[in-house]
Specification:
heterodimer, A: 277 residues, mainly alpha, 12 helices, 75% helix, B: 342 residues, 13 helices
Amino acid sequence: MASLAARRTKDYTIKAISVAFAALAIFLLAWILLTLIAKGLPALGLNVFTNITMPPGQNGGLLNAIVGSLIQIAIALVIGGPIGIFAGTFLAENGKGTRIGAAARFVNDILLSAPSILVGLFIYQLLVVPFGGFSGWAGSLALAILVIPVIVRTTEDMLNLVPVGLREAAFALGAPQWKVVMMVTWRAARAGIVTGILLAIARAAGETAPLLFTSLGNNSWSVDLSKPMASLPIAIYQYAGSPFDDWVSLAWAGALLITVGVLVLNVVSRLVLSRSH
Amino acid sequence: MGLAAREARLTERGVSGMDATMDTTGEVGRIPIHKAKSVGGVSDPLFVAALWASGIFVLILLGLIIAQLFIGGFPALQEFGLDFIWTASWNPVTEKFGALVMVYGTLLSAIIAVVVALPLSFGIAFFLTEIAPQALKRPIGVAVQLLAAVPSIIYGMWGFFVIAPLMAQYVQPPLIEFLGPIPLLGVLFQGPPLGSGMFTAGLILAVMIVPFITAMFVETLESVPPMLKESAYGVGATTYEVYKNVSVPYGSTAMVGAVMLGLGRALGETMAVTFVIGNATRLSASLFAPGATIASTIANEFPEAAIGSLKLTSLLQLGFILFVISFIVLALSRALVRSRLD
């Protein structure tokens, strides 16, 4: 065995390296955020929120993209939220210990990490081709499929933390399962379920790939869900790759908006969870 | 007896009693039992059915996605057969399509990402579990996790506008100069310093998967029984020796699973890669040459493909291949992680 001094030196060296690696991770996060602020903040004028996307040089904004994103995220939540919460409840209650429950949990874990662009292709095949066109509905459904596994996972985890004794007490009073779940278990796990929904919103807000072939994007004002619909990530994608300076800076402004929104949602969801414990 | 079964039995018995009690504020006897029973009697089976339906929906969703991609890509499979996977050409003009370039690009960029992310994750996990003072542990852990929350397209823009120019100017030229002339190995580092390409894509992917791998490393390392570590400390081991010889071997299975999860994430990443990989559908040995992944090719070429065209079905077939690859990697990852936790 090496001498004590040599082992000590090695220990210190490795510790120094791992401190440096942690610092590097923080540095990268700061670098990304500072880049966004430096390039996005100057471009973040009132026009971003009041004007819709326009041809280069006409002081366009991102209003239609912001509204389109909000609409699609909202519909994705309305569809995916209940399915996710119910499926998560199923895994934690009725499906516990059954083969179907185990299989559904396995599938959900895969869906959680599966390439999101394939969800876009799936909805394209399922809705866009048969109904003859890109639409806000298709985009919303693609986002709903991405939202579901996030909500299922957090709901199940949070319900598993609810003491069995609480459920047993409610059942012993003679409550049917729907009352036990809705009035006891869901209520006890409320903060956790809200966390899951916030994280799901954060995920849906930043996803670009599944919207490429579903809602496509739209450069004019449209809130018609049966027509192609604009969204912030798609507008950023389109503008960032363009040769026009004002479009590129609008893309940075949009990127700043999305990132700040997503990071705030993540931090808030952590606060909600830690405050409840 | 399982909890579910017990609940079900309790539910059956409890329905009528509870509702009767509530409806009559204690005067159970006056309300006919069958009337009260119908309240819980209808809503409870409905509720339970909704729970089952949602669970089964999630269960079949994956199958539906795979089936749709397979059906969509089937014409390409008919046209090219299994050769599709080994064919290196992707030519929309002659309508000759093959997946080899993209499969190679997908695997190579993901492997670069894992190779770079692995030491980083080991280091950060060591820092978070053994070195960091309690007060710093949580904020730094959260900051690392926030790297995972930054949307893919933001990484793409950052990579394209910030990282790629830096790579072209400062990183790639010296690498090409010093490593390029080495026989055999040098092939990987030749060609013009374009900035974008396979290497840059791999680096960006590495930053994106570090938080996932680190989080699972930390979770695993924190489950190591303190007594094992204390025994090692007791015989005079240093912090690093305990980490290397006790903690990591104890959690090795789950940690391999964590790395597989990172790999699975990197394989399917789309927007970040599309911005920085250069999108060239030809095979190059050099890491600095532009390439393409399955996901980036789909994102780039899908909008130009007409419905029903051979190109579109080939893209769907590519999607199917990507799904199969990620499914295998993610399923392996999950099996490894769960095997130790259960």
